Automatic annotation (TrEMBL):
InterPro entries: Coq4, Coq4_euk. It is a peripheral membrane protein. Belongs to the COQ4 family. One of its GO terms (molecular function) is 4-hydroxy-3-methoxy-5-polyprenylbenzoate decarboxylase activity. Keywords: Lyase, Membrane, Metal-binding, Mitochondrion, Mitochondrion inner membrane, Ubiquinone, Ubiquinone biosynthesis, Zinc. This is 4-hydroxy-3-methoxy-5-polyprenylbenzoate decarboxylase. The lineage of its organism: Eukaryota, Fungi, Dikarya, Ascomycota, Pezizomycotina. It comes from Alternaria burnsii. It is found in: Mitochondrion inner membrane.
Length: 289
């Protein structure tokens, strides 16, 4: 009888319930092109590692060859920002009280939210006036920034969107124009300040500049960008909407940013100098005849 009890106890320990085949939970399939997870926010496009690598290479080469392709620059920025760089930038916002407030409020920079006509009527020394004047002079609009698609984390996607929409404020703050030479200088500043790989790649497009432009970048704007980007406060943590009536010189001083020489004025002066030199040579040639 004792033997029967031990057998019964052993059966209890080793017994496993029998399941119908249909009751087994199938393991989830791996993320692939044929098994793409649902988007995490509106407009989100999840990518596999291979897709992300392909996007980074293709958009990187395309934007290097043609820096005017904003869509390629945006795609390259998103493809290379994760899994590390955009999280580091988000963490720097979380460590800053203003950055945390921006992440909580999620403001968007558009022509409507900024009320551009009102900014044009602000005193000339204010950030808002300088921003509106820069938009008018360069012929750009804050409404042209593409929506983020390839950043997986929803909060980090907003950080990238915020960086993208703040770009024109960086231009206005330092007075750099939108043509290639000015963009390269500003991207060098952004790379030193934010560490985003896309901004670093844009700096390499300096090798495609003309000889005079390269000399200015090497002698003037490159050193300015590196020094000011590294030593200034994190520009991602500026609540631009609350600084519109701030004196722009005071804001630069608070952030630790020096205004670079006027690039348009330098280019104009060099053109006039070349023109005068050419005219002088022509006059000498005519006098020698």
């Amino acid at each position: 009888m004792a033997r029967n009890v031990r057998i019964h106890q052993l059966q209890k320990l080793t017994w496993r319930p029998s399941f119908q085949a249909s009751s087994f939970v199938q393991p989830s399939r791996c993320f692939s092109v044929l098994n793409r997870p649902p988007p995490k926010y509106e407009g989100h496009i999840p990518l596999t590692r291979v897709e992300r690598l392909g996007l980074a290479i293709g958009s990187g080469l395309g934007s290097f060859l043609d820096p005017r392709r904003g869509d390629l620059i945006a795609s390259f920025g998103e493809a290379t920002a994760q899994p590390y760089f955009i999280y580091k930038l988000r963490d720097r916002m979380l460590l800053n009280p203003i950055g945390r407030r921006i992440l909580r409020d999620r403001p968007r920079l558009t022509s409507t939210s900024l009320d551009i006509p009102r900014l044009r009527n602000l005193p000339p020394n204010t950030l808002g006036y300088a921003y509106a004047a820069w938009l008018d002079r360069e012929g750009v609009s804050p409404d042209t920034r593409a929506a983020v698609q390839y950043i997986d984390d929803e909060e980090c996607a907003y950080v990238m969107q915020r960086y993208r929409e703040c770009h024109d404020f960086y231009h206005a703050l330092v007075g750099l124009p939108v043509f290639r030479e000015g963009e390269v200088a500003l991207k060098a500043f952004e790379f030193a300040n934010t560490g985003l790989p896309m901004t670093g790649l844009a700096v390499f497009s300096a090798f495609t500049l003309k000889k005079a432009e390269w000399r200015r970048f090497w002698d003037v704007y490159g050193p300015w960008a590196t020094r000011n980007g590294a030593q200034s406060a994190d520009v991602i943590n500026i609540y631009w909407e609350e600084e519109l009536e701030t004196d722009i010189d005071d804001l630069r001083a608070r952030l630790g940013i020096e205004k670079p020489p006027d690039l348009r004025a330098m280019r104009k002066a060099e053109r006039e100098a070349r023109k005068k030199e050419k005219e002088a040579k022509e006059n000498m040639a005519r006098a020698a005849v």
